[in-house]
Design goal:
This protein is α/β, with parallel strands linked by helices and 196 residues long. It has seven helices and nine strands. The protein has a single domain (2-185), classed as P-loop containing nucleotide triphosphate hydrolases (Rossmann fold). The strands form two sheets. The protein has a five-stranded parallel beta sheet, sandwiched between helices. A four-stranded mixed beta sheet has the order 4-3-6-5. Bound molecules: adenosine-5'-triphosphate and the ligand Nc1nc2c(ncn2[C@@H]2O[C@H](COP(=O)(O)O)[C@@H](O)[C@H]2O)c(=O)[nH]1. It holds the Pfam family Guanylate_kin.
Length: 196
Amino acid sequence: MVILSAPSGAGKSSLAKALTADARFAVSVSHTTRAARPGEQDGVHYHFVDPAAFERLVAEGAFLEHAQVFGNRYGTTRAAVESLLREGRHVILDIDWQGARRIKALWPEALAIFILPPSLQALEARLRGRGQDDEAVIAQRMAQAQAEIAHAGEFDHIIVNDEFEEALADLKTLIAEGRRRRPLHYDPGLIAPTGA
Ligand SMILES: Nc1ncnc2c1ncn2[C@@H]1O[C@H](COP(=O)(O)OP(=O)(O)OP(=O)(O)O)[C@@H](O)[C@H]1O
Ligand SMILES: Nc1nc2c(ncn2[C@@H]2O[C@H](COP(=O)(O)O)[C@@H](O)[C@H]2O)c(=O)[nH]1
């Protein structure tokens, strides 16, 4: 279990995707109430649901963790993680610091890594360069960035994603070292039921 968190635009999704070039790794597909961006596919990038459906899943205890981020709700279902574990894959969670804190409480063995941008200017340039969010969304995410970065110290490791290939190499090294210390194999039965 590898948790990747970062302020929006720092590059965690790009790093997570690059890791999945190794078929042993897979990114858990979260549920969200956010609208799909152009090119995003339901069931691939997220399970896109309306607020009522999300609330039903909360009530059913379907989520290992869920949080409100940038005015939308996001959550990791037990089913999403279990299906990957059953396939024998190493699970990557691309989640915010609130979710990371919850998953670490459930699985202290999970490797939690915080991705930092080289600067706030670079972060803003990346959000704009991605070309998928309007000005209001970019302003909201930049306004939250420093508050999110304040949680970086809660993570096992911090990687600065300046040169992408270097950051990816650092990430692979940390995962390999983590695996030597603690194999990334978990019994799905260990997943504790939780509604929060
Ligand atoms: N090292 C890098 N140098 C320059 N651009 C980068 C680097 N890493 C990622 N990017 C670019 O920055 C943009 C944001 O990356 P990405 O979508 O992976 O961020 P994110 O942290 O997952 O954001 P979000 O939390 O909003 O999903 C993308 O256009 C990506 O191609
Ligand atoms: N706590 C959780 N946070 C999640 C989950 N899925 C994504 N996220 C985080 O939300 C923000 C915004 O994502 P975006 O796709 O709208 O840019 C980002 O920090 C993600 O890591 C989740 O299941 N739980």
